Amino acid sequence: MESKRQQKYAKLIQKELGDIFQKESRHLVGKAMITITRVMMSPDLSVAKVYLSFLLADPQSTYELINEHKKEVRHHLAKRIGKSVRIIPELAFFPDESASYAQHMDKVISGLNIPPAPQEEEEEDD
């Protein structure tokens, strides 16, 4: 379980990375919309695991492009939060598969053949 301090840093990084992808890294992502779904901090706050969700783009190629420009994204992050944190964390990006997993599970559940429950007769006691 994350400490309050880890959660505070995770929120800060999530907000700032969202702004970076929306404003400063347009040349990297183009028209793609990138959502930071979750950030998890290591206990020493030196590594941030960032989970990304993609819209209007090929997830795999966009993910690879972001991974190639990780240093540039970290540099933008350092400019924004450098005065308020001691260490700028290393960024580890991961694609967030929860939306596609949810769609898959909906498809599986809707495809199940579940027979209706048998009707129970109610007996009246007078």
Automatic annotation (TrEMBL):
This is Ribosome-binding factor A. GO terms for molecular function: ribosomal small subunit binding. GO terms for cellular component: cytosol. Gene3D superfamilies: 3.30.300.20. NCBIfam families: rbfA (TIGR00082). InterPro entries: KH_dom-like_a/b, RbfA, RbfA_dom_sf. Monomer. Binds 30S ribosomal subunits, but not 50S ribosomal subunits or 70S ribosomes. One of several proteins that assist in the late maturation steps of the functional core of the 30S ribosomal subunit. Associates with free 30S ribosomal subunits (but not with 30S subunits that are part of 70S ribosomes or polysomes). Required for efficient processing of 16S rRNA. May interact with the 5'-terminal helix region of 16S rRNA. Belongs to the RbfA family. It is found in: Cytoplasm. Keywords: Cytoplasm, Ribosome biogenesis. Signal peptide: none annotated. GO terms for biological process: maturation of SSU-rRNA. The gene is rbfA. Its main location: cytoplasm. PANTHER family: RIBOSOME-BINDING FACTOR A, CHLOROPLASTIC-RELATED. It comes from the Bacteria.
